[in-house]
Amino acid sequence: MSFPSDFMWGGATAANQFEGGYNEGGRGPSIADMQTNGAVDKPRIITRVPDENLYYPNHQASDFYHRYKEDIALMKEMGFKTFRMSISWSRIFPTGEEEKPNEEGLKFYDDVFDELNRAGIEPLVTLSHYENPWYLTEKYNGWADRRLVNLFLKFAEVCFTRYRDKVKYWLTFNEINAGMYPFGQYNGLGIFNEGSTDTWNLKDIPQLRFQGLHHQFVASALAVKKGHEINPDFKIGCMVALTANYAYSANPLDQVANQLSWQYCNYYCGDVHVRGEYPGFAKRIWKENGVNLVMEEGDAEILKEGTVDFFAFSYYMSSCISTDETLKKTAGNLFGGVKNPYLKANDWGWQIDPKGLRYTLNELYGRYNIPLMVVENGLGAYDTLENGTVHDDYRIAYLREHIKCMEEALEDGVDLMGYTPWGCIDLVSAGTGEMKKRYGFVYVDFDDFGKGSGDRYRKDSFYWYQKVIRSNGEDL
Hints:
The chain has 14 helices and twelve strands. The chain is α/β, with parallel strands linked by helices.
């Protein structure tokens, strides 16, 4: 079975990691702007005010703000059908509390969408991609405060109204299940508690995380409902970080632990978005985490009325789940697990598992029975620029096998809308702030400290992906 003729081939980025121009055009600071660069052994640090002795990679990022026409031309050359991007909330409402939006910020995205339209590329827009206005963290401690619900809804309504004829496909929150983990406490929820300023090791308060996540669920549902009122043709989806977890052994303890991991990692958030209600196992999760979730009157109806049109997710790797604490651990996107002896890993320890993508697609479609979209996937690697290009056969091999497994899932009967590999043009890492962890088809000449020309160079994978799109996935 070949890919559908209307399959949405493209690529994905996020404003905070790609856009730059952090203090231009009336934009206010976001939570991403307060994070320094880091490395595998040196996590990103959060500062309440900028420190001139530190480097903040999101300030410049890949400089899409100034080079969007050049970048969209490269996407057109590759043949993109869609481009997943995000809108910086603080570019539209610098503090999040203004009565009127920032016209200069709105105009910037008008220009971007117009350029995409001229290139024949459909935008897929994430409203909140790890980027809340910093002011809302300082004043309210982010999504821990329910008042962010209406502030977000105002932002969403402005975007839906302004771009109702330019954008059809929307996502509300990026990797919303990040809020299930300490990493997402700040990056996803904008909650900054006293304690270490290390992004990965902030003082964790599960009560605030789960309550903040509930506020995001309510905000997402209200936005979905409002978006459909503004334009009934809108297709509005959720976005969850997916990891295919396997039981390490046939030990029943491992089997049960793996089932619980799917519930916690993958289904808790998906069920609320798609089914419009918390799953039965949520109460046990709250109890075991010491959480007393506060739901206001009417919240249940809001969640039920604001279910999504499609389910989008990121997929990079798989992991094994075991109750044996002596086994070697592995790294991962948001969460790790036990090392799988049958798999290889990338330079950052993320295990490469194309077959797990087919498995995941079937699991999700069997549970939710709505269209799916893989909106992040790719190989982070150390690329070397040589004579104006990068010979990244390793990336081509990774993507080729994942595309083959998507085709298998289509033959299994999965309704798959599209595929947008992550960081299609090199960008800053969300986890570490590095530039050297590269995913793109296009090399961006900036290093980890923003030094370089910023010039773009086509990698070997650029021409390979161009061929894949032109053949609609037949020529791999």
